[in-house]
Design a protein that fits this description.
- The protein has 311 residues and is α/β, with parallel strands linked by helices.
- The chain folds into two domains: 218 residues, Aminopeptidase; 73 residues, RNA polymerase II/Efflux pump adaptor protein, barrel-sandwich hybrid domain (OB fold (Dihydrolipoamide Acetyltransferase, E2P), Beta Barrel), CATH 2.40.50.100.
- Helix content is 19%, strand content 32%.
- The protein is built from six helices and 17 strands.
- Strand 4, helix 1 and strand 5 form a beta-alpha-beta unit.
- 46% of the residues are buried.
């Protein structure tokens, strides 16, 4: 049975599995909530903050199925579809019939405002009392992303390293991003991860997301930990990241892939102007390619390549 919920304090306090919902009219946000021995430590897994990102959604459902089989010490909240309106439209932003805003730049939100701002405020009130957040993203329709195990505090690097085959990535401080705003609360663990995109499901990426979440839950003590030792081995770490943006509309045909090394001045692809003249574009930066624009149509201000420096 789905019970309407408005904030963390209204969640069921009894041990067990609960399928709930939160109403931001006219949409319903599904809430999966399971309590083990106690409420704390409490972890939250979020997905589909952007409605065109599928890896986190699939991983979240996988984790919900798995967690019923384990010894849960704390509690787990899973929000597999944070923005139902965007998810139904398979769009990055909330559809324009609501307000067209980017939920991932709107936290902690405000009441009595537009739909997305109210949604952000309601989600924030729901999760802010948890102890840890794992926010799962991908490149959506427009981009392909390398695997990025994002973290905010150096003390959380080992948790980020639970994500297999990912670059360790200190997430830039970006106001309005859920994981960033959560990280600002003293004592909280906040992880923001990226993987895949291109308007499709990277099944291997989704599977590894699920593996990583399970490992993090064990390390946090949310589920009983079996065995011990460190996860994996040392990983390459991304330092400063730089975007190469465009100032005009056109079409970009990339000639590079995520994970590849690039040097300043190297050709990154073909640029087709509105008058259909074609020229080569070269990189303004050197480093590792961690995201590429794969949707050819580009508008002013869109970034074409995201390059990171290895440290």
């Amino acid at each position: 049975m789905k019970t309407p919920i408005a904030k963390f304090g209204e969640l069921p306090q009894r041990r067990g599995r609960h399928r709930l919902s939160m109403t931001i009219a006219p949409e319903q946000v599904p809430i999966y909530w399971q309590i083990g021995q106690s409420i704390h430590p409490c972890a939250v897994v979020t997905a589909m903050v952007h409605g065109d990102e599928f890896e986190g959604f699939v991983a979240a459902l996988d984790v919900w199925k798995w967690v019923r089989t384990v010894d849960l010490q704390g509690s787990l909240m899973i929000l597999p579809v944070c923005n139902p309106a965007a998810a139904q439209a398979a769009t990055r932003h909330t559809p324009t019939r609501y307000d067209g805003l980017n939920l991932a730049r709107t936290f902690p939100g405000v009441t009595g405002s537009s739909y997305t701002q109210q949604l952000a405020h309601a989600l924030w009130n729901l999760i802010r009392d948890a102890d840890a957040l794992i926010d799962l993203h991908s490149g959506g329709v427009g981009y392909d992303y390398a695997r990025l195990a994002g973290y905010y505090r150096d003390t959380d690097v080992d948790l980020a390293a639970c994500f297999p085959k990912a670059f360790l990535w200190p997430v830039p401080a970006t106001p309005g991003v859920l994981s960033y705003e959560f990280s600002r609360i003293k004592g909280k663990v906040s992880l923001g991860w990226e993987c895949g995109g291109e308007a499709r499901l990277d099944r291997a990426g989704a599977d590894d997301y699920a593996i990583a979440v399970k490992r993090v839950l064990a390390r946090l003590g949310v589920v009983a930990r079996k065995g011990g030792g460190r996860v994996g081995h040392s990983r390459p770490r991304i330092g400063r990241t730089r975007r190469q943006t465009c100032s005009t509309a056109g079409w970009f045909l990339p000639e590079l892939t995520v994970g590849s090394r690039i040097k300043r001045g190297q050709v990154i692809g073909q640029w087709i102007k509105p008058d259909l003249r074609v020229r080569e574009l070269v990189s303004r930066h050197s480093g590792i390619v961690i995201a590429v624009r794969t949707l050819p149509r580009v508008e002013p201000g869109d970034y074409l390549v995201l390059v990171g420096e290895l440290v």
